[in-house]
DUF3465 domain-containing protein
Amino acid sequence: MKILIKGMIFSLVLFVIGLVFSPTLKLAVFPDLDDTGLIQQAWNQRNSNVLVEVKARVVRIHPDIVDFETFQAFTVELDSGMTVRVHHNIDLAPRVPVSANAEIRLRGEYDWNPEGGLIHWTHNAENSERKGGWIEVNGRRFL
């Protein structure tokens, strides 16, 4: 009996660790869970380099930003009502077919700015120490 209880506790601990470190498992178990609160906290504290995963609605499409790389740019509104810019590097990932009012999910890196912040690094990060991101539209994930 003690072995069975220890095995159950061990399984529970592994499950909790999986929830903490695996966004995929977290979404499978808690599909409506997102980091909107974490973004608000990062904005309040002027924090950057925060990995986030959120559900959002596209509220504005901006012209591409051509700098040293090319970025698809748009603004999203989070469930909290906060708006955040998204810069998606289309030199490293495919353009995402978004339009105003599109519901999306995305994972990327949040950086603070006075206008609400920016989510970028929404692409695969194979040759980087950073964790890669993605944008999901209509069930299709763009890396």
About this structure: The chain is about 25% helix and 35% strand. The mean pLDDT is 83. Residues 25 and 77 are 25 Å apart (CA to CA). Strands lie at 50-66, 70-78, 83-89, 103-111, 118-120, 134-137, 140-142.
